Amino acid sequence: MFFWIFQVSLHGFLRDITRTLIQRIEEAFDTFFGGGNNPLRHLGAMGLYFLWIVVGTGLYLFTVLDISIHGVYNSIGHQSRDLWYFGGILRSLHRYASDAFILVMMLHMLREWAYGRYYGFRFYSWITGVPLIWLVYASGIGGYWIVWDQLAQFSAISTTELLDWLPIFSEPAARNFLAPDSINDRFFSMLVFIHIGVPLLLILGLWAHVHRISRVDYLPSRRLMLGTMATLLLLALIKPALSDAAANLALAPVELRLDWFILFIHPLTDITSPALVWSMLLAATALLFLLPFLPHPKAEPVAEVDAANCNGCSRCLADCPYAAITMEPHPNRPGYKIAVVDPDLCASCGICAGSCPSSTPFRRQEKLVTGIDMPQQGVNALRQQLETQLAQLNQGTRIVVFGCARGADIKALAAPDTAVISLICTGILPPSFVEYALRGGADGVMLTGCRTGGCDFRLGDRWTTERLSGQREPRLRGNVPLTRLQLVFASANDDKILAEALQDFRTRLETQAVSADPLQPYFRRPSHHA
Amino acid sequence: MLKPAAATVGQVILYAAFAAFVGYFATAPTYKQIPDDVALIKLSISHLGDRECRKRDPEELKKLPPNMRAPMDCPRGRSDIKLEVDIDGQPAFQTVMHPTGLYKDGISTVYKRFEVKAGTHQLSVRMNDNLVKPGFNFVKEAEVTLKPAQVMVIDFNPDRGGLFFK
Ligand code: HEM
Ligand code: SF4
Ligand code: SF4
After folding, report:
1. A219 lies within 8 A of chain B by CB
2. What is the complex's ipTM, to 2 decimals?
3. How many Å lie between the alpha carbon of A304 and the closest alpha carbon of chain B?
4. Is residue A186 part of a domain?
5. A246 and A329 share a domain?
6. Closest residue CA from atom 6 of ligand 3
7. For residue A490, with 0-12 CB atoms within 10 Å meaning exposed, 13-18 middle and 19 or more buried, which class applies?
């Protein structure tokens, strides 16, 4: 029992340290790239980008490959030697994009783990990610064999020796590489078949991996893609991928220019043992599969639909980051649809509540009931909280700060002239609340959320920005003076930036002309006037 | 945010660091699996053991129906195979290989890699593929001279006279 608790807290401790580290590096990258172009914030998309480069260049290599014992080595060598400006570059891209793919895959996994994104509604994404690692390594290692140089020979022998430790083959597979006459052309046909087949499986697996989220980050931004491609091309020119000497099974290769991203397993086997390597691989895989079952915070309540207030507009479906919503026939309005939430997929982010047209606080109902809402932070409670806090603001320039609980800490900003309202995610706030706050007596509204690309619920920052700038429904109404609205994207490490931004905003509000405000005051309850 | 020029410089540096990292570990540091002055001897044998037949005594034969009175009783299973390797007079490896298959009727295999200093060595390999009989029915002894990094194979093929080196 104690051991278990120790384990769990050790895991939590390691995870938190890693998260802090990753977050700091990520934010340092923001300084240069900005959130949208920051590769560390789009590792999955970077992975897919590298994969497409690998697939594209691989198809070319396949067409020029002469699949026979002597043919493979010579035909690949010909590309690097005589067609270095084309085939050679494609070959280098194939190799370096594969290495980069493995690098970003590992970072992606590390990052998802560090941010605690492996349980609950992310269980599926996590679990489907694990087998991909095996497929990636199977393709990568097999790829090195095709060249049939000394490195290929070394890897083929080491891999089969490792496989032979498992009781799969009746005859040792390493026996196929005893002497020059042990292998034949068929071996290479099989190899190419595997080296194309396994990546196809990988693509299928990736399709499943992202199947349950919507608006998948399929590719990085154009800028990032161009920068990355330029970098790979430059690397291909400066250090082209070349073959070693041709394989010769009668001689053991002495010095190997090893690809440590893909072939690290061989030296690892040499310094340990096949038994230990298999134990480590299987234990690591089991651990990854078990991770989601370790104790973790309880799931939050999921979104709930109210039939009477849902008109079937599908905005929530369009905005839900986790494809948790489907539209079905409305139970009591013939011809209309209704949103239906799949509790297994729902991330409890509230972004749907922010998208629903029924969420506007200007409705006169005593109890605001919207189409889709979060039990733990309903729009009615939000409106009440806003009204109460507005009534308490009685000094100077009154500012309401709405902020995501996962970003910078807004509680510290509370003051007699500043109301703070913490949200599950910035995306839960219907834009009409901004207008409501201003017409209810606030001089300014500040909205904060995680940094661009850093939303824990993937799309909260994006939808908020688009809604407030009028690019997306529900829009902030055009009559709201944008001078009275301030958006600040600040992570949990950015408390100081946030405090400064608030100060700047206040100064701006205080120095700008009062006539800039065309909004009529609005009070839902006449009693507020008194 | 930085000024665009400063941001671009930063990006170039980070891209370069990425390229350097990927480019370096794609081929370096180099790896030596075996020291320079070493040769490899690979013992790899894949052989169907003999049947462990037993001669039936006359009493036993009489009890059998006349059409089944074979003088030898040969079970389906195959014999284990005993194998010994000596290098320079020292025992280097000894094993008993077991037949594969549910009914022990498959081949027996062994695969083993030895590292030896390049140079001349006295090799002696002995094998018995029918443990009902004592001793070794296959023996191969030879002096071999191995160059650095050379791979020599000890194999078995009944058509090539049993054990052989290549
Ligand atoms: C084989 C390479 C992989 C690629 C190309 C890849 C790609 C992606 C992509 C594109 C996304 C969607 C990101 C978004 O749109 O927000 C994603 C999400 C995710 N991936 Fe991977 N992935 C890979 C491997 C893995 C592995 C090995 C794991 C962990 C075992 C993993 C865990 C996750 C998780 C948990 C999410 C969900 C993130 C969220 O819900 O916010 N992935 N992946
Ligand atoms: S709470 Fe978030 S995940 Fe759940 S249905 Fe609403 S938008 Fe989708
Ligand atoms: S946004 Fe609101 S009204 Fe529209 S479908 Fe969703 S729950 Fe119904």
Report:
1. no
2. 0.87
3. 40
4. yes
5. no
6. A316
7. buried
